[in-house]
Amino acid sequence: MSAITLNQYLLTRQANSHSPRRINHLSVDLTQLILQTAIACKGISAALHKGALAGILGSANTDNVQGETQKKLDIISNVLMVDTLLGGGQAAAIASEEMDEMIVASDSGRYLILFDPLDGSSNIDVNMSVGTIFSILERPNSNAVTTEDFFQAGQHQVAAGYALYGPSTLLVLTLGDGVDVFTLDRDLGEFILTSEKLTIPEDTQEFAINMSNQRHWEPPMQRYISECLEGKTGVRGKDFNMRWVASMVGDVHRILIRGGIFMYPYDLKDPKKAGKLRLMYEANPMSFLIEQAGGASTTGRQRIMDVNPDGLHQRVPVVLGSRNEVLRVTHYHLSPNSEF
Ligand code: P6P
Q: Is the ipTM of this complex over 0.85?
């Protein structure tokens, strides 16, 4: 397969999207916005690659809007994303996990972009995989941009993806017509198309959850995990394996490649938090990718991409992955006393 760069891929999609068979309109501005995002991710990858040699590991001794202690690389990654996107001109406004408020970027910009610049950053100091997650919405009107313009359900995303900084640096992208994977060729400095149209198996024997929170879960989640742990001795009739990367990008990527179910459920530890993960720049973009690959993604009670946002940093319970397992967990929440 000849090497197709991200740029060539997007330009080809852009040309085709004007054809009668157009799948999803890919504007010049959206193409450029995605390329700008990819440039920022290359910069983050380079910074991570240096690691301790650049003196950028460890805590920044500051807290973000979530009240979480920031790593130095959280701040560096956010600066790289913001500066690159401000320079591009395609974003009307920018929102980030690391910033309390959105930033107005360009009066002529057609898109709103939200991101978690470095997801899983607690893994950095132990050299484990981390990632950048991004979600792109259309600006709803030509009025001065407000925070409320971002409050669009996940089904309105026009593009979403993540960079995974692992043994390879990958860019995983959907434009609403499947999920494709690009691998960073450090020698060329280009993302090269390496996998197309990822498809998640409908069934799985692998679940991902932080088991230390078990005593805080609601009964339906207790039931589902207990059945997985009973394995072939219980009602499921098959054994399960468990994985937990503690970096959503790593867990989601594994599921996109080989199936599985990822859960960060509502827990009673802090009921007002409705779980840990954020709707706008974690759950929505990952749900878009998962659904585009044939999986499912719910809060346990409703489709995540149907949730109507009312805050940039609102949290939501997450159950995503292989369709039949997600449907089972959701059924347990909605019809607790019936069999699946
Ligand atoms: P815990 C990383 O901080 C994150 O937001 C996700 O990437 C990850 O799935 C989850 O939190 C890990 O949470 O409770 O295991 O540290």
A: yes
Which one of 1.10.10.10, 1.10.760.10, 3.30.420.40, 3.40.190.80 gives the CATH number of domain 206-334? Answer: 3.40.190.80
Q: Determine the residue of 248, 252, 255, 262 to mutate for testing ligand 1's pocket, defined as the one with the most ligand atoms within 8 A of the Cβ atom.
A: 248
Q: How far is the CA of 59 from the centre of ligand 1 (A)?
A: 17
Prediction pTM value:
0.96
Cα of 247 vs centre of ligand 1, distance in Å, is: 5
Atom of ligand 1 nearest to the CA of 246: 12
Name the residue ranges covered by the structural domains of the chain.
6-197, 206-334
pLDDT at 18: 59
Show the CA angle centred on residue 193, arms to residues 90 and 1, nearest 5°: 145
What's the rounded Cα separation, in Å, for the pair 68 and 12?
A: 41
Ligand 1 centroid vs 122 CA: distance in angstroms?
Answer: 8
What is the distance between the alpha carbons of residues 256 and 33, in angstroms, rounded to a whole number?
Answer: 24
Lowest-pLDDT range of 19-28, 129-138, 157-166, 183-192: 19-28
Are 212 and 271 in contact, with CB atoms under 8 Å apart?
Answer: no
Cα 162 from chain centre = 6
Assess if CATH 3.30.540.10 describes domain 6-197.
yes
Contact 59, 7 (CB under 8 A): no
